[in-house]
Design a protein that fits this description.
Number of strands: 32
Radius of gyration: 37 Å
Distance between the termini: 89 Å
Strand content: 15-25%
CATH topology of the largest domain: Nucleotidyltransferase, domain 5
Number of domains: 7
Structural class: alpha+beta
Number of helices: 24
Shape: extended
CATH superfamily of the largest domain: Ribonuclease H-like superfamily/Ribonuclease H
Helix content: 25-40%
Strand order of the largest sheet: 11-10-9-12-13
CATH class of the largest domain: Alpha Beta
Largest sheet: 5 strands, mixed
């Protein structure tokens, strides 16, 4: 009852009040159940025995452990502890005390003179543990076993199947693998070794190893029998960027983590710590004079330890090697390394996940100086003057993210903005849309000043888009179609044919709703018969949306089939066929076709035979982008809500069910009005002046007149190059520098050429790397373009070697220590 020896402070006793049938009572002394009672009692005991703690006494609440090296010392230590307890009216229960023993159970662990071992009762509990029959029982077993993991060398490996079983959304299945893991843990705990006590007067031995996916180490000391005995085990999987480290860095990281994990033992040792590694290059790492920033940090961390690295071949280091090379770690794939340029991998989405980007945005907010005033305002909003409140009224903080009018603000830090643009333009789910569609996708959830300009430039400078985008030519004036007044009232059909054979498919049936502009894409054969087309219509249109009143069909062989005409007439549908030799009269589907082809060109890459698997994503990308005629995405026009491109943390508002019908009706009226406005705006393409190119400038070449050995021209790049302009023949013709493999005339009409647009944000890729001086990165100064005095201090406008004038920066005098010669010449002038 040690708690009752601690008085409650005067003035705080009312906080312990409790009501009974005899009245209201309050405690005078500390009782069980009070929130801070354990911490208060631990503080009380520490204060009482402060001169004996870690000298001969260890205390956890009311559990007192007295230890000594000799019997004589132990008798004195016991007398000191008992006398202090007696002087403070603290009493021990004799039946719970043991004296002068070399083995004692303390906090669930058996403490021996030689080390630590498991309590037999706990071993028995594990041995008798029944086989789990549900997730809760597995979690209970893992929780109990996890307390004993320090005694099991390969605990995480053995428990991996059980951990996988209790993951969220995992279906319960207790099979052979799970039973073996369960039994393996029970056996390992039953036969757990004795972990020795650490002796600061003896040297420590650290055995480390790293595989492609994990690191392992064992800390040991040599005992009386002359052999190394373990003090503990360490096993960790590589996560995040550490998975991409090379072998040298992974082996070094194993040493770093081991020193961090056992710092209480390894810091300030009397004898040098011997570190065994099977990576021979690490033996000389401490003598290395050249290292990067990461190695510099590691050097600084290890400077506080007295150690030497000794090479030990892998055959002699079996224990840590086994820890790091378990089969459960072998599942981690090696990091991909890009060996070829991006266009070769056009079908890969090399973008950072959106949730990870949002995490980076949280961490980077305070690094953007332009957001400093806004963040300060939100921290002390109540104290801000009215003018500041009005200026920043649209900004809010939620879950660590800064929002502007409900959209996440992206700071101008690193490549965050570019990474987001890659998600909403370069990824397969986006499908390399145009300027306006990309801007609309990004702007749904994100905002930053200049987002439109950045988006337009990103799209214009996208190499993949420049290669595959068709040059625009003039055409006859289009004739607008009759406007529908409801969903799926008018339907357009067309086919994209002559694609590479993918299974039984070589064509795409394109179906468009004239009202919402919603598109359905169906793979099919060019030799599609009338009955087969009717079947596709029933399965993809009729069963979802009913019968259209009118269809607009391309006047091809399949669509013009007499049987198909009769079928439509029998169903009560009035078919309208487009004019011969001018497919744009069915402009609705003909406008969709280039967009679908554009997506497949960007996604299917060089192979071109796997376009069918990209078709669902092409349909999603088209329907998820805002249509210029309606001002809404086809998806929202049809269903009333926008789909998510990727899993996101952005909060969304879901309309109430009662309001949905009213909202949809209003939305469809808006679409009908927008279609009428779009109809009045329809004009033929503008004819502009011919482009002008400078000698040495690069240009794209239209590929339509160049015969290339590809499976399908539909999925082939629409532009070749870029090629350097070597001569201006006239305003209408230029000579290009072509590779020897292109055996064609090198003079081209200017209408076949187009400008190359480059992303300024990526221009650093070809810049010279910085030099390292005294461990710091420095850039070479090419010249000084201007200078000025600010508050008595001189600043110079620096032109950096290998960088454009837009990269010039103002630098103080102290930052230009390695440009003395240039400064002296400037002074002379």
């Amino acid at each position: 009852m040690g708690y009752n020896n601690v008085w409650v402070k005067e003035g705080d006793k009312w906080k312990t009040a409790f009501c009974t049938k005899y009245g209201l009572y309050k405690s005078l002394v500390m009782t069980f159940g009070l929130t801070n009672a354990p911490a208060a009692f631990q503080h009380f005991m520490n204060k009482l025995f402060k001169d004996l703690l870690d000298v001969c006494v260890i205390i956890y609440l009311d559990d007192i452990l007295i230890y000594s090296k000799t019997d004589a010392d132990h008798t004195q230590h016991v007398h000191k502890v008992l006398k202090r307890l007696m002087d403070n009216q603290l009493f021990c229960k004799a039946s719970k005390c043991t004296f002068h023993v070399t083995l004692v159970e303390y906090l669930g662990i058996i403490v021996l003179d030689k080390g630590f071992s498991l309590d037999k009762l706990k071993i028995q509990a594990v041995q008798e543990w029944p086989t789990p029959t549900k997730v809760k029982e597995v979690q209970s077993f893992l929780g109990f076993a996890n307390f004993l993991r320090q005694f099991v060398a390969n605990f995480s490996h053995m428990a991996r199947p059980l951990h996988n079983l209790v993951k969220k959304d995992t279906v319960w299945k207790w099979g052979t693998k799970e039973q073996e893991a369960f039994q393996g843990l029970k056996d390992a705990i039953t036969n757990a070794p004795v972990l020795c006590h650490a002796n600061p007067s003896k040297p420590y031995f650290l055995e480390t190893d790293a595989s492609g996916a994990a690191l392992g180490s064992i800390l040991s000391q040599r005992q009386e029998d002359g052999r190394l005995h373990p003090l503990g085990f360490l096993l960790e999987s590589f996560k995040g960027a550490k998975q991409n480290y090379n072998t040298h860095n992974k082996e070094l990281l194993a040493i770093i983590r081991s020193f961090e994990y056992w710092r209480i033992f390894l810091e300030g040792t009397l004898h040098p710590i011997t570190v065994f590694t099977n990576h021979c290059n690490l033996e000389y790492w401490k003598e290395s004079c050249t290292f990067n920033r990461r190695h510099a940090r590691w050097h600084l961390l290890l400077a506080g330890y007295n150690f030497q690295i000794v090479y030990q071949p892998g055959k002699q280091s079996g224990k840590p090697d086994a820890l790091s090379r378990r089969s459960n770690h072998a599942d981690t794939p090696p990091a991909n390394q890009t060996m070829l340029p991006d266009p070769v991998f056009a079908n890969l989405a090399l973008v950072t996940p959106e949730k990870e980007l949002q995490r980076q945005i949280k961490l980077s907010l305070d690094q953007d100086e332009s957001l400093e005033e806004i963040l300060l305002f939100l921290q002390n909003e109540s104290k801000a003057p009215p003018s500041i409140k009005r200026a920043f009224k649209d900004y809010k903080m939620e879950a660590g993210l800064l929002f502007y009018q409900g959209r996440i603000v992206v700071p101008d830090v690193g490549t965050l903005r570019t990474d987001l643009l890659r998600i909403f333009h370069n990824s397969p789910l986006a499908g390399h849309p145009g300027r306006q569609r990309t801007l609309e996708l990004v702007s749904r959830n994100y905002y930053w000043p200049g987002i439109q300009a950045d988006t337009y430039w990103h799209v214009d400078s996208c190499k993949t888009c420049q290669r595959i985008r068709k040059p625009k030519y003039g055409s006859i004036l289009p004739q607008p179609l009759e406007l529908p007044s409801r969903l799926w009232q008018h339907v357009s059909y067309d086919m994209i044919v002559d694609l590479p054979k993918d299974g039984n498919s070589d064509s795409i049936l394109v179906i468009v709703d004239s009202f919402t502009k919603y598109v359905i894409l169906v793979e099919c054969s060019k030799k599609l018969k009338a009955l087969e087309l009717a079947d596709l219509f029933l399965r993809h249109v009729w069963k979802h949306y009913g019968m259209p009143e009118k269809t607009v069909l391309d006047r091809g062989r399949v669509f013009n089939n007499k049987f198909l005409k009769a079928l439509y007439q029998r169903l009560g549908i009035d078919p309208h066929f487009s004019l011969a030799y001018h497919p744009q009269s069915d402009g609705q589907t003909e406008c969709v076709n280039p967009t679908v082809e554009h997506f497949l060109q960007a996604s299917s890459g060089v192979n071109q035979k796997d376009w069918v698997k990209w078709l669902p994503m092409a349909e999603f990308a088209y329907n998820n982008a805002v249509h210029s005629s309606t001002g809404k995405s086809p998806f929202k026009a049809l269903y009333g809500w926008e789909p998510s491109l990727t899993p996101s943390n952005v909060p969304t508002d879901v309309p109430e069910a009662d309001d949905l019908a009213t909202q949809m009706e209003s939305q469809w009226r808006e679409i009908e009005a927008a279609l009428w406005q779009s109809k009045t705006r329809m004009v033929a393409g503008e004819v502009g002046k011919p482009l002008k190119f400078k000698i040495g400038e690069e240009a794209w070449l239209d590929a339509k007149n160049v015969k290339l050995k590809t499976l399908s021209p539909k999925l082939t790049e629409q532009r070749l190059g870029p090629f350097k302009v070597t001569k201006r023949i006239s305003d209408r013709a230029y000579r290009l520098e072509l590779p020897p493999t292109m055996r064609i005339h090198n003079v081209f009409y200017v209408g076949l050429l187009s400008k190359v647009k480059r992303d300024k944000k990526r221009s650093f890729e070809n810049r010279p790397p910085p030099v390292t001086v005294d461990g710091e990165e420095e850039y070479k100064v090419k010249g000084i373009t201007d200078m000025e005095e600010r508050n008595g201090k001189w600043f110079f406008r620096v032109k950096w070697k290998g960088y454009g004038s837009e990269e010039n920066t103002w630098e103080p005098r102290e930052n230009l220590k390695n440009a003395e010669k240039i400064l002296k010449n400037l002074k002379k002038k």
